[in-house]
Amino acid sequence: MDLGIAGKRALVLASSRGLGLGIAKALAAEGANVLLVGRSGDQLAENCKAINALGKGKADWVRGDLGEENFVASMVTAVEEKLGGIDILVNNTGGPTPGTTEDMSADKLDTFFQSMVLRVITLTNTLLPQMKAQGWGRVLTVASSGVVEPIANLALSNTLRGALVGWNKTLATEVAGSGITANMLLPGRILTDRIEELDTANAKKQGKTMDEVRAASVKTIPAGRLGTVEEFGAAGAFLCSEAASYITGSMLRVDGGAARSF
Q: Which family is annotated (predicted)?
């Protein structure tokens, strides 16, 4: 299937590794030109080198930290200088520290709200006028399956990513007539460094080995395994495609059937 995004310009946040990188690679494989964002210049440069070696969509990178106050302004500048405009925005952020609701101090809430919610919304609002002017755009926001079935010991993530659900649905309704879609992609247990970190934290909390924790979690997944970054990236590329023009305001779970909700 031709996804119809060859030559489209995509900004992919938090794409030095993991889920963001998976989406960036999938978009580039379809011929899109991608701008990778992250805190490690060396890692981003290596990622771009690998993507560009495939000879399809071009990749470039810019250092960016969602925790910094000037993040939005720096991204807007980078989009203009390196891409010459924007067609696709992939909002992706790192996850907050594990913990219960009682661990959610005011300082933690404020810190992670800034990086996971406020700057995502502000950047989207800043780039939307370009998409409206050209009559085409894609906004894809990566969250977590925890927004449909809260995940134990991830109270901060469940809370802050949940806030993006109402925002995305409202946004989708407002911009649909301008040829712009806004969707959310919800990962379950995809094998990334983040999963390694969470499994390690849960093993410590439960007094078990990481292998025991991992085996127990796999038992809860009907597919009987963890997902791959490539599978996740492919789903993201589809939602950013011309083929998905009539899909907006939706949440797509990539979780092997783990969530028990509809």
A: Belongs to the short-chain dehydrogenases/reductases (SDR) family.
Indicate if 43 and 145 belong to the same structural domain. Answer: yes
Residues 37 and 49 reside in one and the same domain? yes
Q: Say which amino acid occupies 213.
A: V
Six-digit token string for 146: 């925890």
In 3-state terms the chain splits into helix, strand, coil percentages (rounded to 5) of: 50, 15, 35
The DSSP call for residue 84 is S
For residues 245 and 213, membership in a common domain is answered with no
pLDDT in tens, 133-191: 999 999 999 999 999 999 998 999 999 999 999 999 999 999 999 999 999 999 999 99
pLDDT in tens, 212-223: 888 888 999 999
Asked if residue 260 has pLDDT above 90, the reply is no
Q: Is residue 109 part of a domain?
A: yes
Which tokens hold the place of 229?
A: 């970054």
For residue 220, the SS3 value is: coil
Please give the residue range of the domain that contains residue 115. Answer: 9-189+228-254
Whether residue 12 contacts residue 34, with contact meaning beta carbons closer than 8 Å, is answered with yes
